[in-house]
Amino acid sequence: MQQSEWIYDWNVAAAPLLPPGTRVLLNDETLRDGLQNPSVHDPSIHEKIEILHLMEALGLDSLNIGLPGAGPRAFEHTEALAREIVTERMKIKPNCAARTIEADIRPIAEISQRVGMPIEAATFLGSSPIRRLVEDWTVDHLERTTEKAVKFAVDHGLPSMYVTEDTIRTDPDTVKRLYSTAIRSGAKAIVLCDTVGHAVPNGAYNLVKFVIEEVVKPSGEKIRVDWHGHNDRALAVANSLAAIAAGADQVHAAANSLGERVGNTAMELMLVNLRLMGVITQDLSRLKEYCEKVAEYTHTAIPPNYPVIGRDAFRTATGVHAAAIIKAFHKGDQSLANSVYSGVPSHLFGLDQVIEIGPMSGKSNILFWLERHKIPADDALVNRIFDAAKQSARVLSDAEISALCAEAARP
User: Which of 97, 216, 114 is CA-nearest to residue 160?
Assistant: First the structure.
């Protein structure tokens, strides 16, 4: 049978959110915006370079390599990452963050010249009415600042990516004025931001559509439109998909959803969803390695129930679930076994279904475990393990089950 005969997919019963042929770029913010999370440890440059290589292996299009104007360590790490991209002839493209001031943009130009490659300057400033109120800014001031910063970047040979913070809470007139000014000044990419995680999918869609129709098309220029979201309402991935549906060309995200407060859009979940939606096709077998290395080097933890990469994502000890998965395994079809009780087929991401034995397990779990470990399954042994599992408050470890097997084998 074909997989389409196993599963009726209501997700595609009408026009899909992202139709076939949708093209999306992914910009990794792990090593810049992700490191703004107050709980993270800033990795060493050697660790950052290892993460960079994993980004390349996952086929990511670009990454933010730092804010070199922040100080000597930031400058050193940014330059080292840029140099690694050049030396190793990587496909991934670098960009750098900068406030809309010359002191932040100039170090990017210096690094670009020293390593001999273009580095996109992501110049940002606040734009929403609430931020303007707090800062005593006028829109005229923001417009002048935008023009000066973008022109400075372009005049110094840097591709310009212009960013407004809190775009999702900014009035339409200000959005039009600032982005139109940036494009007239030479920006070739604009970034719409949900800086505080305020957006819902409709809001992300509406904002992107508005900017494309009211700013980009009237400009007559070829402009890349990016979406940068945060996860305060746990909607960052959904918002990013809505932004792509509205016409966004690129989405920003970070490994393990690292970033300010509760973090950015999760890069790994964008990759998973885009793969399952048929938008991307690259090899994602190193996805878990990427996430685990980021967690290790930033001294953060991945929750066990985190989708796809969490320790429990493809483990089950529940009897009914395990019984169905085991029956599928016995039919000799990996895809069937990985889909019967999972909406995310583990093999697409280099992972396996794992059947455990615990207090919620049935005897089928035990029979399968014994089969996998090539241990004969007589009734006495099965009952011994079953009784131990039912008396336990947790899943039994392999060592504990092996010990029970050894005890049963003694004369």
Answer: 97
Sorted by sequence, the CB contacts under 8 Å of residue 201 that are 6+ apart come out as: 235, 238, 239, 241, 242
> Quick one: pLDDT at residue 336?
87
Domains annotated on the chain, with CATH: 13-298 (3.20.20.70), 315-409 (no CATH)
Q: CA–CA separation, 94 vs 136, rounded Å?
A: 34
Q: What is the pLDDT of residues 155-176, one digit of tens each?
A: 999 999 999 999 999 999 999 9
Minimal CA–CA distance to 54: which of 287, 362, 402, 341? 287
CA-angle at 44, arms to 42 and 47, nearest 5°: 105
Rounded alpha-carbon distances, angstroms, from residue 99 to 22, 96, 142: 32, 10, 12
pLDDT of residue 338: 87
Measured CA distances, 18 to 28, 142, 189, 242, 374 (Å): 21, 35, 22, 9, 46
Mean of pLDDT values over 68-93 = 98
Query: CB neighbours of 213 closer than 8 A, spacing ≥ 6?
Result: none
Residue 116, Cβ density class (10 Å: 0-12 exposed, 13-18 middle, ≥19 buried): exposed
Most distant CA pair in the chain: distance in Å? 89
- Mean pLDDT for the chain? 95
- Mean pLDDT confidence for 40-53: 98
Q: Which pLDDT tens digit goes with each residue over 131-146?
A: 999 999 999 999 999 9
Kind and range of the H or E run holding 45:
helix 45-57
